[in-house]
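User: Just a sanity check before I run the rest of the batch. Below are the structure tokens for the first item. I only need the designed sequence back.
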């Protein structure tokens, strides 16, 4: 495998202060297929990217997720490296991500920013939010990944073709990771450096709004990967509400002999619904496990061919 087999994919939006340097470093290492998918930047990002030797495409829609989906359809190489254009990742570490896919040991390689997080690269709020989201992911999917929101990744062509991506915004990194787990792709995580943004570049991520969307995406996608957790959480909510309401009814009866017939009916309904959701989760987990085994077998046969 050589650099000619790799496409460097860089999504950009107003990155004029960093994009030329990022592209230049990749070209110095021999990468000639560099695709910049631009989200209608209002600065000189596209001009500088073309001047540095990249192929520039303006996305037809909006959002990082939409840009990446559009770019994947344009790429024909066997391997793809995705990297942000803000200068926070080191192009020199690209081999750390490519080696596992070149060796056939992984379909999707993710760079772990927390392995070498430079001082000031993330605010305390962003760092805490990232770690909380990663914990939430590990709890639901039982996969020991430490940085599911990383913007530095490498894929095999077969791996990308198996992903069904629907998210248009910053949730795309989460969806890539979760869908890779669901489809049984071999995922590897390698340590990388994450440094402060190049002076002049600004983050487009809203820690609170985008963090909430990312967390909701993790939970929503658990419906088909871990139904026991998804329905179990809802069942626990209804069951707990019914139990607490039941304690109140019993206390009122014992202390004042007051009957709360409507509340008693509501308590029974809440508890019954809670149990039904829990058992639905158990059944769904059995079906999901069988589905994963079928997908793994199909994928294994495709690789052998």
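Assistant: Here's the designed sequence for the first item:
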């Amino acid at each position: 495998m050589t650099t000619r087999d790799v496409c460097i994919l860089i999504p950009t939006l107003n990155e004029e202060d960093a994009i030329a340097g990022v592209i230049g470093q990749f070209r110095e290492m021999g990468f000639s297929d560099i695709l910049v998918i631009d989200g209608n930047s209002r600065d000189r990002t596209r001009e500088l990217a073309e001047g540095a030797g990249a192929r520039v495409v303006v996305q037809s829609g909006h959002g990082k997720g939409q840009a990446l989906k559009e770019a994947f359809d344009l790429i024909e190489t066997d391997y793809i490296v995705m990297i942000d254009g803000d200068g926070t990742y080191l192009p020199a570490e690209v081999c750390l991500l490519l080696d596992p896919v070149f060796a056939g040991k992984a379909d999707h390689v993710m760079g772990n920013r927390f392995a070498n997080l430079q001082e000031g690269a993330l605010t305390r709020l962003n760092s805490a939010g990232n770690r909380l989201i990663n914990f939430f992911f590990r709890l639901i999917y039982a996969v020991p990944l430490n940085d599911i929101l990383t913007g530095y990744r490498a894929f095999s062509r077969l791996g990308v073709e198996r992903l069904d991506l629907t998210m248009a915004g910053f949730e795309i990194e989460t969806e890539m990771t979760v869908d890779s787990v669901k489809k049984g792709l071999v995922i590897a995580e390698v340590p990388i450096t994450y440094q402060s943004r190049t002076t002049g570049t600004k983050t487009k991520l809203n820690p609170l709004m985008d963090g909430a969307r990312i967390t909701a995406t993790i939970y929503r996608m658990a419906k088909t990967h871990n139904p026991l957790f998804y329905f179990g959480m809802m069942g626990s909510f209804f069951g707990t509400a019914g139990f607490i309401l039941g304690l109140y009814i019993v206390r009122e009866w014992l202390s004042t002999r007051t009957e709360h017939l409507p509340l008693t009916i509501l308590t029974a309904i809440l508890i019954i619904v809670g149990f039904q959701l829990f058992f639905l989760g158990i059944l769904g987990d059995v079906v999901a496990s069988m589905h994963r085994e079928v997908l793994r077998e199909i994928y294994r046969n495709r690789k052998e061919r």
